[in-house]
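Re: the multi-chain job from yesterday

Posting the exact lines I submitted so nobody has to dig through the queue logs.
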Amino acid sequence: MRCGELAERLDERLAVEEYADVDASANGLQVGPADREVARVAVTVDAAVSTIEQAVDAQADLVIAHHGISWGGIDRVTGTAYRRLAPLIEDGLALYAAHLPLDGHQTLGNAAGLADLLELTDTEPFGELGPVHVGQRGTAPDAYSVDALHDLLAGELVHGGEGVQVLEFGPDRIEDIAIVTGSGVDWLEEAAESGADAFITGEGKQKAYHLAKEHGIHAFFAGHYATETFGVKALQDRLEEWGLKTTFIHEPTGL
Amino acid sequence: MRCGELAERLDERLAVEEYADVDASANGLQVGPADREVARVAVTVDAAVSTIEQAVDAQADLVIAHHGISWGGIDRVTGTAYRRLAPLIEDGLALYAAHLPLDGHQTLGNAAGLADLLELTDTEPFGELGPVHVGQRGTAPDAYSVDALHDLLAGELVHGGEGVQVLEFGPDRIEDIAIVTGSGVDWLEEAAESGADAFITGEGKQKAYHLAKEHGIHAFFAGHYATETFGVKALQDRLEEWGLKTTFIHEPTGL
Amino acid sequence: MRCGELAERLDERLAVEEYADVDASANGLQVGPADREVARVAVTVDAAVSTIEQAVDAQADLVIAHHGISWGGIDRVTGTAYRRLAPLIEDGLALYAAHLPLDGHQTLGNAAGLADLLELTDTEPFGELGPVHVGQRGTAPDAYSVDALHDLLAGELVHGGEGVQVLEFGPDRIEDIAIVTGSGVDWLEEAAESGADAFITGEGKQKAYHLAKEHGIHAFFAGHYATETFGVKALQDRLEEWGLKTTFIHEPTGL
Amino acid sequence: MRCGELAERLDERLAVEEYADVDASANGLQVGPADREVARVAVTVDAAVSTIEQAVDAQADLVIAHHGISWGGIDRVTGTAYRRLAPLIEDGLALYAAHLPLDGHQTLGNAAGLADLLELTDTEPFGELGPVHVGQRGTAPDAYSVDALHDLLAGELVHGGEGVQVLEFGPDRIEDIAIVTGSGVDWLEEAAESGADAFITGEGKQKAYHLAKEHGIHAFFAGHYATETFGVKALQDRLEEWGLKTTFIHEPTGL
Amino acid sequence: MRCGELAERLDERLAVEEYADVDASANGLQVGPADREVARVAVTVDAAVSTIEQAVDAQADLVIAHHGISWGGIDRVTGTAYRRLAPLIEDGLALYAAHLPLDGHQTLGNAAGLADLLELTDTEPFGELGPVHVGQRGTAPDAYSVDALHDLLAGELVHGGEGVQVLEFGPDRIEDIAIVTGSGVDWLEEAAESGADAFITGEGKQKAYHLAKEHGIHAFFAGHYATETFGVKALQDRLEEWGLKTTFIHEPTGL
Amino acid sequence: MRCGELAERLDERLAVEEYADVDASANGLQVGPADREVARVAVTVDAAVSTIEQAVDAQADLVIAHHGISWGGIDRVTGTAYRRLAPLIEDGLALYAAHLPLDGHQTLGNAAGLADLLELTDTEPFGELGPVHVGQRGTAPDAYSVDALHDLLAGELVHGGEGVQVLEFGPDRIEDIAIVTGSGVDWLEEAAESGADAFITGEGKQKAYHLAKEHGIHAFFAGHYATETFGVKALQDRLEEWGLKTTFIHEPTGL
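And the result, structure tokens for all chains:
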């Protein structure tokens, strides 16, 4: 498949245009000519020197990453920008990025993937950001205890570093769960005000402690990387259905 | 001392006005009439319901916090804003906030305090933010190993939660150290480009991993709370010199 | 009724959300927890120390004001902001504000109330402000003379200060009348260009004189306070229908 | 004198450039070619059809007005803009505008003129607006009573309409007086916080009532027009010194 | 016909309102009272002193120009602005401007007129600018050679100066042609990416050279003036149908 | 010399930082790691595929261009951005850009070079752009006639396309000449108002015609490329003095 054709198909599937005004990431094809032929795709969370080198080793023609390399425009191709672009160009790889579109997609996205893992039902969009949503909420058929939810997250997610951190300020029985993966603390209050028992995100931030305490909600910090492998893996399945070979490049950050 | 007089003295000592254009925090007197008489001051990292209640119990007249309650204006005094304001007003406490001015002050600030703990010399302002700096850098008289620096931070700082996390991508001998306390990952590249061996901040962020790796610099995440007790404690000393009684309200967040 | 439930009902009735982008006032519940129980409501034009104290004396649980206390965010709870918030919080009153939504509502609003007093017919929205209107225009079944209209306004409106001022530059017979209550001079030209014989607002402004003269339209300045008691009084009726007790707090400003 | 030369001299004398960033008025020469010869100048508060026609009758070559006709750019020369421009162009008059520069000038300005009338001493700039001031404050050698100050203003200023309105919330003896002429209510709080006993401006605004009451300061509304004849009259004297004939066009607005 | 009525009819016909947010030109009636009676209309590309004087000589009541005299507001009626406004006002002419609405209109516009000249078929809007288009593209029934297209443009358009300049980087056979008249180089890449063989605009810009070369597309610079006489001439026909007399004022700029 | 060291030396020499707020071009090192060793430098007007390829052929290590490849940030490295970056990265060339700093420098800049060619004396900065200037003006010791100035420009500048175009609206004797190279029409009025007899720039624009005519000034359009080879050639001399080999890559655009 031509790179440009594949990019257009992904743009459409992920509704990339709807996120254009609220995402600093230049989603879609970020690097490479549209007429490049693509047979093998490497998917990964972060486009960076080491993951790109692994994609080269895997003989990929295209890297699809949740975190690409253009955020608000590349002012100078020096330093880190140069180090990341050079291997892509020298080894002939293209790069496709899908940031918020892959957080908020209600079946393929990161939050949707985590909700599946927790077997939530009655799921609905959560995490308002202008006209779109970047997360998902749902109900646990059987209520979790704090320990059970902690252990499930700690056991199933690959963190590569710290474990799962909990601010234990909510009720004993956790049924209603709101999720924004990655760096989602800004939606903790929306979760509390909408009645969730627990809010799950990736990274913690200082202000979360008192907000969670004062709202009486549990906050789980399960790792930015660990909560954001779902989306690119879900894309992997679609790509294979479209006749492409795929490789998942795994480099957990521990963050 | 009158509350207004004390606030003016602190404003001047911390050069609050220089930070006005770059800090979302409304630094200075945030709550309370200027003519209130102040005898006892509670200092704390976060102004929140529980720390304010502890200040009430300590019979303080004024709370000085690194993180206040007004960030870009309080649109509605409902929810959390109400819960935090109500005890201040009902129990007659005033609130003074010093955010970035207390991060960047080169002798009283959080980074300066952490640099003291590490016994850095030849310290200078670090962490550009418009016209001001929010951190400090310096040289360790005897080079640290990664383990030694980790253990010093882990042993001396009170985290209340996770320990100190290290991205170990720098040299064996750590001499040149750059510090921005709290949420300082945005200055990791400035640290690397200026030749630092290690960068210390409070919270980790996902993007730090590959930036540290590609720049060949160590990144230490020693906790937002844990790295930001220095400033308010340094103020405590000054306040006592000015004849005021003080109390440090300690509520570590583990973040 | 719970305060939050009442606020939502009012938000909906007054279409508060439609005005969000054009009104500096934080319309809706401005102060107080949503779970407070409300039995008695005090309505008033201005939320300020003296009207709040009168509401306390009247044993109200909630104050509904046309002019609230949050305009573009409260940066510091000091000075006037403190003096107004303190009695609300100390005496357990909530505050609900409805500014432009209560100017522009076509049956409950201030302009609509004044149009009723003048017995205008064929009324329609007037006073464009982005996507909404903040006034009303209509036709007098029997034409007014300048003196008759002046006397009606002077006799029926409670000013508390100066009387009604007229810039007498329009035709002898006044049939088509445009109204924007309060501070509405900016719509004088819209009134003239749409063919109105007279424009009625609350406060005069210097530039109105020559605009009215050059457009050949009468301008009536009937007082900011005096033209803006209609809206909160109309709400009073609705609140009583909903089973709440109400009190109108009257403090004319003479402006 | 050539029009351009006169304009430059006025620009310099009034420090027009210092006000450029904070004034919507296009101060300086607003209409007319710079090479026009000027023998007679008409000065007036408002540039409008009737005052321009009076200037034509007075055989003036140039109109100097406090309120000109270009505020943020003339988008279309239709309606009022056409009616005002046409007589200027048809009858060969130029127009020079001096808005905030003529409010804030500490000897020629409107506030300075009113301070002179009140015989204030120890005058200093008042009314901060970015880098400049738009008013003046000073001390009355013998304290005024409210009635005495009211009567002096009512007797000496030509209003053409309503008299002088007072919000009587300050002390019995009025010594420290702050002045911003015209539409200056936004500086009422600065006046109160700086310890003034009374604040004098031209137009009243609704919010002034409770602010004055809560701050315990008198507010005098002496008329927009009436407080702003001082500046252009002071210019008249300078122009005569420069050998030009002058006429004061008086059209009080009553506002 | 009254000037205001004619202006409204043109506004509607040219969909002036749709262009309001993207055009610096104040499109519509720019100068003159709406109640002026119009019998003869002069149409021209540029409203300027010499074309206005020719319109006066032609005894026109209204000038319709592609380039008017108000772009983002007239700050001062001095210098050039004065020289252009004065003859309009002194000789009683009104001015109507239609900039982008007359570039992008798909039957009356400049690009549409040029497409007609080239006998393009299957025309469609081209040249995105926010919600509107400012050009047109279409297919030549018989492919042009570079020389044939050059000679046609050079022969049919009246330039008044330089001839037609070609950057000859496209294919031998030119079938698919995109047009944005005037200053349209910013759409050269859109033309190339949409598969056009040649892009025609008025003025050249330095950056066009390498963009055309790298995209393999021909760029024709046929003159700003020369490509923009189509629109006002098309309006001339409509005006005559509406019973008005018209004159085309021709002043080629050679640019 | 290391690339980073050379870039810093040029940044300082050209006062690059002073232009940072007004220039869309990311001036300074745009592409390449700072530690690259530089022996040979290719200088050129435009960084583009063909000039970069010529620099590769010339075995340059660094390209210095007046027009670089990053203008307001590279959003996507696709299309033209890819085609230009790829040969730089694949062949190991760095890229340094100097746009407005090389227009406005008063001895090395483009305008200064053109002023030298015309043997102007008493030169001074011309062409205000915020805090900097982008051109130069001066006096011809012996007045030029229009023909003489035209012939000098046409004879000495290498255009590669159209010749020199003149709008002949100024005086017979041309003594005072203002220059902004490249695309400088926006400063034509500043030239006229400051008394220049002729204004020289590179590209013409439609609006220049009537402005020049109404101001009575000659406008010479001598080609964007042709007027902008001076700056990079002047740098060539400095680089040779610093011990570097240099090559001038000449690709006239005819624009």
